[in-house]
C-alpha cells in the first residue's frame, strides 16, 4: 500500500491552501505547458491517475472528453472531488497506483499530475497504463523533476561568493527520498530522467515531448521568486504515445 | 566556422595524453555503454561526426561496417587518423559540423562521441544528419551532460557540513559556456536535456534510449574518484532511429 499523506488531516488542511487546490488548474504554474502536450480531447476516454480534487477530470469533460475516470488513493480527496462534480460521465474511484489494475484498451488518454513520483514501482505502473490504453493512446504526465528530488539535502544553498545554487548530489542513487513537505516523512521515489524515459520506451511508448518546465516572463513578473526554476527545474512534463 | 581548439598545439599536446587518446576506445569509461547502444555493424555505411584520431572508424570496420567516413574540423587529428589507418573503406574528411552538408540517405549509422556540444546550431545539424541517413538509420551519440555544462561555475563545492555538491544553477539559460579545459576559452553550447530530445523528435527521430552514464563498480574500484559521476552525470548518451 502506498503512503497516503493526503488523508493526514494536517497535510490535507495545508494542501487545501495551495493556489492549485483553491483555484484549480490555473493555479498551477505548469498547467499551460502540460495542457499544450495534451491531444484534442473531443470524445476521448480519459483516466486521471491521482485526480485529487477532480479539477482535471472536470476540465477534460468541458474540453469534450466522452468519459473520465478519476483515481486517487485519498478518500478525502475523492469525497471533495465528488462533492464538486455534477456530471454522470465522471466517475471517481479509490485506487493505489502501486497496485493499479485497469481494464484493457479502455482509455485513449492517461493523465497524471504530480502523482507518479509517489509510485515505487514505476515500471509496473507504466505496464498497467500501456495495457489500459488503446493503440495510439496517449500518456501525458508531470512529476517532480529528478533534479529537484535527487539531492541528499534538497534546499538552496548560498555560497561564500554569493551564488545561490542547488546542491546536486546522489543523482544516480535512485529510490526513496524522505522529505518534510507540509508534514514530516513524505516518501517520494527518485528516478533519473533517463530511467524514466527508458522505462516508457521499453514498455512500448514512443516519446513525443520532454518538457523541463520553466516559468514564463509573465509568471516571473507576477511571482519573482519563481525565477529560481530557471536555475533548477522543479517539474518534468512528458508526453508519450502508445505504440500499436 | 566553429572554434577549432584541437589544432591549438597546446591543446593537441595535452589531449594526446588522455587515456582515450593514447589507448583508444577502451580508454574512455563510457565506451562500453555507448557501444551497447549501437546497432549490429555488419554492412553498415557509417559516418563519424568528430572522428578525432579515427579510433571509432577503425573499430566500426573491424566490427563489419561496409564503409566509414570520418569527419573532423581538426587537420592535425585527421593527419594522425590517416597515418594510423590502412583501410581503403575508411575515408577521412575535414568538416565543420556547424555547416555540415552530407549526401542524402547515404548512411545507415551516424555516430558522434563528445563532439556535438561544440555545435552551436544543434537543430540544423540534426536536420543534416536526418537527411543523410536512410530510413530506419540510427543516430547514436554522446555529449557532455547538460548538468555538467549548465552551471555558471562548473566545479565541485564542499559545503560547511562536509557535503561535496555540484553547484547547479543556470540550467535553463541555454547557449555558450566558455571554460578553461586544457587551454583557455573553450566554447561549448549548453542545451537542456529536454531541448536536445525535442529537437531530435521534431526532426523525425524516435528516441530509443537515453543513458545518463554512470560508472560501474569495477570502474570505481579501479579509479575511485570516478565515483563522483554518481552524484552528477558527466556524459549523456542518446540512441535514436530515423523515422521513415
Oligomer: homodimer
* N- to C-terminal distance of chain A: 32 Å
Biggest β-sheet strands, sense, barrel of chain A: 7 strands, mixed
Main sheet of chain A: which strands, in order across? 3-2-1-4-5-11-10
Segments of chain A where pLDDT lies below 50 for 5+ residues? Answer: none
What's the shape of chain A? globular
**Which two protein chains have the largest interface (Cβ within 8 Å of the partner's Cβ), and how many residues from each?**
A-B, 36 and 36 residues
Count of DSSP-assigned helices of chain A: 9
What does this structure look like?
The structure is a homodimer of 244-residue chains. In chain A, the strands form three sheets. A seven-stranded mixed sheet of chain A has the order 3-2-1-4-5-11-10, with helices on both faces. Chain A has a two-stranded antiparallel sheet with strand order 6-7. Chain A has one domain (5-242): Rossmann fold. Chain A is built from nine helices and eleven strands. Helices cover 26% and strands 30% of the residues of chain A. The A-B interface holds A 147, 151-153, 157, 159, 163-173, 192-194, 197-198, 201, 206-212, 214, 229-233 and B 147, 151-153, 157, 159, 163-173, 192-194, 197-198, 201, 206-212, 214, 229-233.
What are the salient characteristics of this protein?
alpha/beta, homodimer, globular, Rossmann fold, about 240 residues
Secondary structure: elements and pairs:
Two copies of one chain form a homodimer.
Chain A: H1 9-15, H2 19-22, H3 31-35, E1 45-49, H4 55-62, E2 67-72, H5 75-83, E3 90-94, E4 107-113, H6 122-132, E5 133-144, H7 146-149, E6 157-158, E7 164-168, E8 175-181, E9 183-190, H8 193-202, E10 205-212, H9 217-222, E11 235-242
Parallel strand pairs in A: 1-2, 1-4, 2-3, 4-5
Antiparallel strand pairs in A: 5-11, 6-7, 8-9, 10-11
Amino acid at each position: 500500500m502506498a503512503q497516503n499523506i493526503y488523508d493526514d488531516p494536517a497535510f490535507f488542511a495545508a494542501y487545501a491552501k495551495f493556489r492549485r487546490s483553491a483555484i484549480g488548474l490555473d493555479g498551477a504554474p505548469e498547467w499551460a505547458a502540460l495542457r499544450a502536450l495534451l491531444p484534442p480531447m473531443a470524445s476521448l476516454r480519459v483516466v486521471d491517475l491521482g485526480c485529487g480534487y477532480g479539477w482535471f477530470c472536470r476540465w477534460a469533460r468541458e474540453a469534450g472528453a466522452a468519459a473520465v475516470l478519476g483515481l486517487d488513493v485519498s478518500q478525502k480527496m475523492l469525497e471533495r472531488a465528488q462533492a464538486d462534480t455534477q456530471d454522470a460521465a465522471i466517475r471517481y474511484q479509490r485506487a493505489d497506483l502501486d497496485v493499479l489494475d485497469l481494464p484493457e484498451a479502455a482509455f485513449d488518454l492517461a493523465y497524471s499530475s504530480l502523482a507518479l513520483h509517489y509510485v515505487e514501482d514505476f515500471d509496473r505502473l507504466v505496464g498497467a497504463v500501456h495495457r489500459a490504453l488503446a493503440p495510439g493512446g496517449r500518456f501525458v504526465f508531470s512529476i517532480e523533476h529528478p533534479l529537484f528530488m535527487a539531492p541528499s539535502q534538497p534546499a538552496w544553498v548560498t555560497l561564500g561568493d554569493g551564488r545561490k545554487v542547488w546542491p546536486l548530489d546522489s543523482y544516480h542513487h535512485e529510490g526513496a527520498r524522505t522529505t518534510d513537505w507540509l508534514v514530516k516523512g513524505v516518501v517520494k521515489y527518485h528516478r533519473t530522467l533517463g530511467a524514466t524515459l527508458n522505462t516508457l520506451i521499453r514498455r512500448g511508448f514512443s516519446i513525443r515531448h520532454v518538457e523541463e518546465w520553466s516559468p514564463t516572463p509573465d509568471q516571473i513578473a507576477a511571482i519573482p521568486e519563481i525565477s529560481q526554476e530557471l536555475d533548477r527545474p522543479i517539474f518534468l512534463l512528458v508526453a508519450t504515445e502508445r505504440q500499436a
